[in-house]
Design a protein that fits this description.
Radius of gyration: 35 Å
Number of strands: 0
Helix content: over 70%
Distance between the termini: 101 Å
Largest sheet: none
Structural class: mainly alpha
Order of helices and strands: HHHH
Oligomer: single chain
Low-confidence stretches: none
Strand content: under 5%
């Protein structure tokens, strides 16, 4: 069968039209995926901004160490009076356990939690400065 020039061009146009339609369909799928990824990226940026804001707020509520020093010093003196034998690892572990318990039961914003954290600091600082019993 011999095709006329017009038939050959029509066949070629049909092939090219089909190829173009297939490419457009693939491009549509790719664009949909790009849109999904862009949406996810936008969500992640918002989450990052929220976390940064939470960090700024947490830093704003933190007391400077120089303001905590008198409270810590007083607690260390009180501990020295109550436990003149010194601190040890067992006491530190016990205090850390009490911090964990307070955090789980009352939350990290409770006064009891803060008091237990102070106890950990006191025991650790006494050990750091060498005020340690012979026991581990």
């Amino acid at each position: 069968m011999i095709l006329t020039e017009e038939q050959r061009l029509r066949n070629l146009l049909d092939v090219e039209t089909a190829a173009l339609a297939s490419a457009e369909e693939r491009a549509g799928h790719w664009m949909a995926e790009v849109d999904r990824q862009a949406d996810r990226y936008t969500i992640l940026l918002r989450e990052k901004d929220d976390l940064r804001q939470q960090l700024r707020e947490a830093k704003a509520t933190r007391l400077p160490l120089r303001e905590l020093a008198p409270e810590i010093s007083a607690a260390i003196e009180s501990a020295r009076e109550q436990h003149p034998e010194g601190a040890n690892l067992a006491a530190l572990v016990e205090e850390v356990g009490e911090v964990a318990k307070a955090a789980l039961e009352l939350g990290r914003n409770s006064q009891h939690y803060r008091a237990e954290c102070l106890d950990v600091a006191v025991v650790a600082l006494r050990m750091y400065e060498g005020d340690v019993t012979g026991e581990p």
